[in-house]
Specification:
It is a single chain. This protein is α/β, with parallel strands linked by helices. It folds into two domains: 6-157 and 309-354, Isopropylmalate Dehydrogenase (3-Layer(aba) Sandwich); 161-283, Isopropylmalate Dehydrogenase. It contains twelve helices and 14 strands. The protein has helices at residues 18-25, 29-34, 43-55, 102-120, 134-139, 147-155, 180-185, 189-205, 231-245, 259-264, 276-287, 333-354, and strands at 6-10, 36-41, 65-69, 81-86, 126-129, 161-166, 169-173, 212-216, 249-254, 270-273, 288-291, 296-300, 303-307, 313-316. The strands form two sheets. A twelve-stranded mixed sheet has the order 3-4-2-1-5-14-13-6-7-10-8-9, sandwiched between helices. α1 crosses α3 (43-55), α4 packs across α6 (147-155) and α8 crosses α9 (231-245). The N and C termini lie close together (10 Å). It comes from Wansuia hejianensis. Homodimer. This is 4-hydroxythreonine-4-phosphate dehydrogenase PdxA. Its EC number is 1.1.1.262.
């Protein structure tokens, strides 16, 4: 097995926080002891982030440099040098931090397409994505609601799901970017069973030998035996029964107002949730920590993993932060967490390939 898996990291929307937090994350020498990071993007943006971080005192002058490569094998993977798979994407004369633009949307999109291509070709062992702006990529003519849909199309994947994770709290979504009305309609036995299977597999990829899966109900009190809705009786419970018959350790439907506290307490390794906010809210309550006394975020942690793909994709669990881009003040913790989880999954898959 490779001693140091290669992790492909997209720069995200260049007008946002991606380039800056990438430099900050790769400023840790211990990271290079565990993996070989390769940034996919425009080298000019990484160089400009280094300049900003030197001016703010975060970096010493000359402490970090950029090596432009056109092929993965050209990278040196040494601390102090950030290897960038260079794509000529940004016209610096037209570029502005924090500004929504088709140029930056196109740049972010092309980085994602390239890192998928590298992963499918086996040139990188996992992919990590910085935030892109959905409006910007749509301005550039690419009509996707986010990374997940781009990955699904370019890998030919039909069955997939979003997983969010922070520390021991993990959730997998039955539906994500749809209206609440449509989300309720999407709670079907086949989809719930699919997500239970994906949740179980994801935990195993993260090194949990016998995962315990909790399944949240859709309605208050999980429907109270049909008083508040029948989705638990007609769709969710039958899916859980089928999953148990397959040998998966799974419980539910658990009332959604208690399932996350139970997961934090160790009852479950992962929770299958029924819609976007049911999973996002608890993850961001524990992962996003605002310091009112300092009027700033103390931590923006958590990761987003797309399950069901033939390649590994882990992403930061925050947006582009246009309002603070280019100022040297961004928090890199979510990206660090993303690289760590991508590395865990890459090692697991590489071991399986050799068994």
């Amino acid at each position: 097995m490779k001693s140091k898996p290669i992790i492909g990291i997209t720069m995200g929307d260049p007008a946002g926080c991606g380039p800056e937090i990438t430099v900050k994350a790769l400023h840790a020498p211990e990271l290079y002891e565990r993996c070989s990071p390769l940034v996919v993007g425009d080298a000019k943006m990484i160089e400009d982030s280094i300049r900003i971080l030197e001016e703010t005192g975060y970096l010493k002058p000359g402490e970090i440099s950029v090596r432009r490569v056109r092929e993965v094998h050209e990278a040196v993977f040494e601390y102090g040098t950030i290897d960038v798979y260079h794509l000529e994407l940004v016209d610096m004369e037209r570029f502005e931090y924090g500004k929504l633009s088709a140029m930056c949307g196109e740049a972010a999109f092309q980085c994602v397409v390239k890192v998928i291509e590298l992963a499918l070709a086996g040139e990188v062992d996992a992919t990590v994505t910085n935030a892109l702006n959905k409006e910007a990529i749509n301005l550039a003519g690419h009509h996707y609601s986010g990374h997940t849909e781009i990955y699904a199309e370019y890998t030919g994947t039909r069955k997939y799901a979003m997983m969010l994770a922070h520390e021991n709290l993990r959730v997998v979504h039955v539906s994500t970017h749809v209206s609440l009305r449509e989300a309720c309609d999407r709670v079907k036995k086949e989809r719930v069973l699919e997500c239970i299977r994906l949740a179980d597999e994801a935990c195993r990829d993260l090194g949990i030998k016998t995962p315990k899966v909790g399944v949240a109900g859709l309605n208050p009190h999980s429907g109270e035996d049909g008083m508040f809705g029948r989705e638990e009786i007609d769709e969710i419970a039958p899916a859980i029964k089928l999953a148990r018959e397959e040998g998966i350790v799974v419980e539910g439907p658990v009332p959604p107002d208690t399932v996350f506290s139970k997961a934090r307490g160790g009852w479950y390794d992962i929770v299958v949730v029924m819609y976007h906010d049911q999973g996002h809210i608890p993850l961001k309550v524990v992962g996003f920590v605002y310091k009112p006394e300092e009027s700033k975020w103390g931590a923006v942690a958590g990761v987003n993993i797309t399950l069901g793909l033939p390649i590994i994709r882990v992403s930061v669990d925050h947006g582009t932060a246009f309002g603070h881009a280019g100022q040297g003040v961004q928090n890199e913790l979510s990206l660090v967490n993303s690289i760590d989880d991508a590395l865990l999954m890459a090692v697991s898959r590489l071991k399986k390939q050799q068994e």
